[in-house]
Amino acid sequence: MLKPEDSAKNLLLISCSTIHGRGYLDHMESNIRDVLRGVQRIAFLPYALYDRDSYAAKAEERFMRMGFALESAHRSPAPPRLIESAEAIFIGGGNTFRLLKALQDLNLLEMIRSRVEGGCPFIGSSAGSIVACPTLKTTKDMPVVQPRSFDALRLVNFQISPHYLDPDPSSTHMGETQEERIGQYLEENELAVVGLREASALRVRHGAVLLHGAASARIFQRGKKPIEVLPGTDLTVDTAIA
Amino acid sequence: MLKPEDSAKNLLLISCSTIHGRGYLDHMESNIRDVLRGVQRIAFLPYALYDRDSYAAKAEERFMRMGFALESAHRSPAPPRLIESAEAIFIGGGNTFRLLKALQDLNLLEMIRSRVEGGCPFIGSSAGSIVACPTLKTTKDMPVVQPRSFDALRLVNFQISPHYLDPDPSSTHMGETQEERIGQYLEENELAVVGLREASALRVRHGAVLLHGAASARIFQRGKKPIEVLPGTDLTVDTAIA
Predict the structure, then answer these.
(1) Checking DSSP bridges between strand A89-91 and strand A41-45, what pairing results, if any?
(2) Given this model, what pLDDT does residue B201 score?
(3) A163 reaches B (C-beta below 8 A)
């Protein structure tokens, strides 16, 4: 359950920053505008990609087209102070291990959590949505660097598995499907997992956790059969997970 | 380069224990018989799967059909002593994080490394092939548990990326391909990566690293274009990686 003090939270957790045939964040523009109502300047965390300069340039250009000014933390002399004074926070996608290690090395986790719990708008995409969860344990990325802990921001009390891909019945590949990998997570862990398909996002606002976007989501809980929920569902009401 | 003292090593590193349309380990039976020449009893490490009992039963039955007796470490009162006295070692596939954590928690890494460097035959499959590498950093598994370190057995001096899957040009999915994930590894790490397709294995013997099986392998090195190598290639001769 979301706790009462969570009603201040204002989050948009996106599965995928670019869907097939569209431009960067195009499919989420109206959701982004909704989260950022009243905001002008946004702190951007580009740490999930190796080339932070070009990532920041791409994100800055995209947000400028929506009328927002983005300030990338990697150019700040004091990233924690940038977060402390940010009007909103956006964590972009890439490699989740690299991202979480940077947030730990820069001592940003507590500051981000405290700001978001106080109502600072937060957008995460892909790896940025995973680090909003209690741990990074539902990433599909390669563990290319070792963070000191798998513990992440814990802005929600469930795990997201973004880029959720349904099994391909015609495949002859023998590697595990995403559903089988989530099954391994549930063998070892208690928290529910939201399989978030690429066109989808979760919107956390006024204590609700709403599924937004064009696809249903698949909810996995230990010892239960997975269930499908439709866009518009409030996961705090219609499932037991949030 | 393999070092001179590595000439004792006798390894079979399999991409995938079951290929489409065949039974468990069927496609590798002749390779397994070759590695295990003169061996009767094999220590089996089932830690990559949650249900160790049924995993051990499946592997025991399969090796019994080839004339070998398998002893599963999870039933041993002292797994390090089982490894110490084993005639050969087989590490099965599953979740690489779970596997490596168990090897660390049971203090098995040093013992396995020392036995294999002394010539004890070693078979790894999938996750079992990854832990034969210096680290688990090229796994595609979910990090469902946290090992204390990403360092693994270092039986070879390169990384394997098993179940290697070529990009699907018709896919509209926007998640990273395996090649892109390996690119992220090479942004952060120096060691070469062998993308090992499902029908393939590497055979380390007499200081050579031979590609076995029905598929070519794809070799990734930092700052170079990936190259394809054919079955029969000795990676210590025809590439600079091993």
Answers:
(1) parallel
(2) 98
(3) yes
- Tens-place pLDDT, residues B79-112: 999 999 999 999 999 999 999 999 999 999 999 9
Q: Which of the four pLDDT bands, split at 50, 70 and 90, describes residue B7?
A: confident
Cα–Cα distance list, A141 to A49, B82, B171 (Å):
12, 35, 19
Which residues in chain A come in under a pLDDT of 50?
Answer: 1
Please give the Cα distance from A226 to A236 (Å, whole number).
Answer: 16
Q: At what angle do helices A96-105 and A109-117 cross, to 10 degrees?
A: 90
**Of A95, A143, A176, which has the smallest distance from its Cβ to B143's Cβ?**
A143
Tokens of A69: 């000014």
Query: Strand locations in A134-207, DSSP E?
Result: 159-161, 193-196, 200-205
Contact yes or no for B152/A154 (Cβ under 8 A): no
Residue B189: pLDDT band by 50, 70, 90 thresholds?
very high
A189 touches chain B (CB under 8 A): yes
What does the alpha-carbon distance between residue B128 and residue B46 come to, in Å, rounded to a whole number?
A: 10
Task: Place B3 in a pLDDT band, splitting at 50, 70 and 90.
Answer: low
**H, E, C per residue of B127-153:** HHHHCCCCECCCCCCCCCCCCCCCECC
CATH number for A10-158+198-214 (one of 3.40.50.620, 3.40.50.300, 3.40.1260.10, 3.40.50.880): it is 3.40.50.880
Task: State how far the Cα of B216 lies from the Cα of B232, in Å rounded to an integer.
Answer: 9
The minimal CB distance from B138 to the residues A19, A140, A142 is found for A142
Q: Which of A144, A148, A160 to mutate to test the interface with B (most CBs of B within 10 A)?
A: A144
Tokens of B55: 């995993």
Greater pLDDT, A50 or B237: A50
Smallest CA-to-CA distance from A200 within A161, A240, A156 is with A161
For tokens 């954590």, name the residue.
B101
Q: Within an 8 Å CB–CB cutoff, is residue A138 touching chain B?
A: yes
Query: Residue A83 corresponds to which tokens in the numbers above?
Result: 């977060």
